[in-house]
Amino acid sequence: LSEIPESVAAAVAGQLRIDRSPSDIEKNARAYDIYLRGRYQELAGTPRIMLGRMSVDAMRRAQALYAQARAIDPNFAGARSKLATAHIFAATTYDTTRARLEQARLEAEAALRLDPLLSEPHEALSAYWSKTGNSQKAIEEIEIGLKNSPHHAGLRLALGQRLVEAGRFEDAIAQFKLTARLDPRNPVAMWRAASAYGRTRRNGEGMKAFDRLIEISPYDHDMKLIQGHSYLRWKGSTEKLHSAIKRIPRDWDGGGMATFARYTALRVDRRYRDALAMLDSSKAEMSTDGLAYYPKALMRAELYEGLGDMRNASIQYAIAARLLEDSVSLHPGNGSIHAALGLAYAGLHRKRDAIAESNHAMNITKLSRNANYATAYMGLAIEVFGRVGERDRAFEMIELMLTMPAGREVTIPFLRVWPGYDSLRSDPRFEALLKRFAPK
After folding, report:
1. How far apart, in whole angstroms, are the C-alpha atoms of residue 75 and residue 90?
2. N or C: which end of the chain has fewer CB within 10 A?
3. The whole model's pTM is what?
4. For residues 326 and 363, is the Cβ–Cβ distance under 8 A?
5. Mean pLDDT of 294-299
6. 320-324 contact pairs (CB < 8 A, 24+)
7. What's the rounded Cα separation, in Å, for the pair 129 and 210?
8. Cβ of 218: how many Cβ atoms within 10 Å?
9. What is the DSSP string of 247-289?
């Protein structure tokens, strides 16, 4: 790096917006080289599929390199911007302290002071406001960035996601559609749109978005399964879910998603013994997609219960409860785990504990803060309340969710077929609700 050609030095100087004194050029060229190494680490760790997980080790290496670049040149806005992004990643994975979030804010604000035209710091600041519970500020931050870069597909996509979190699904769909026009082969835009269509019960449009997504990203097996789950909510049929299962490699089971899809399809079909045999052959011990958190023992418990084998069901519920209790102690702020623990306690007839866990899951994430997570926990709470005899509350919540954008959790066709609602079927209010909300 000590012998940098003048043409390269000039280009680097121009990109970094620095004075062209020889010492500064060499110093900042070094910073830029280290920054590029950080970018390489970050890109190498980026998943190639929608629900893939960013490599923590790769991002930590990238973070260290961005910090080195900043140390060499504190006025390097790009390095400070990427460092903010790295801190946001850390704050949502391995270091969920407020201090980490605050460091992300400081770096993003510093980057914008140095270069107000950068877009990435606005995304980092938006994530900061989202994580600290201010959805309006999160939206406004992206909108500020869009004033300078109205055709920036990444910012449009980020705005759509913030609008989803705020429960403004129709506005979000408009942003996802605009993202797709700006970047026609962006699979994330298609996925976000498909999900938002499903939540607003615009399922025909959602299926088309899924079809386009799978065309763009044919090896994204998660999306084929999610389309099958969405079709189940729309039509009450496992046909598309079974079809999706046949279309994915037999040995693929990212995050236990294939196991959970097979369990879901077979449970809806009431093929409980086949589902148990499937679980015995599955290598996955847990299924999680960010919203659901289902240990294999919980699936087994529900299947044994479907068979009327209450002895084995109780054993599996107890195993699931112990696993989930351990997980809750490690991740107390994860509502998905609390919601699943509520189901396990309900299966063990621990009414007070089951209700407490369901309530805790719903209190962790309010509708006003993140509608995606909040409605997921509400959907599982209906099953818990039904199982422990709190039918009034279960029916109140079903009625509420049928009037709001919660098509991922509660639809009329899904209410008719999902065994998790069996405890409510004998109540005349169940059929009355289905008739009242049935499409005209």
Report:
1. 23
2. C
3. 0.87
4. no
5. 97
6. 320/295, 320/344, 320/347, 321/345, 321/348, 323/295, 323/297, 324/295, 324/298
7. 30
8. 11
9. HS-TT--GGGHHHHHHHHHHHHTT-HHHHHHHHHH---SEEES
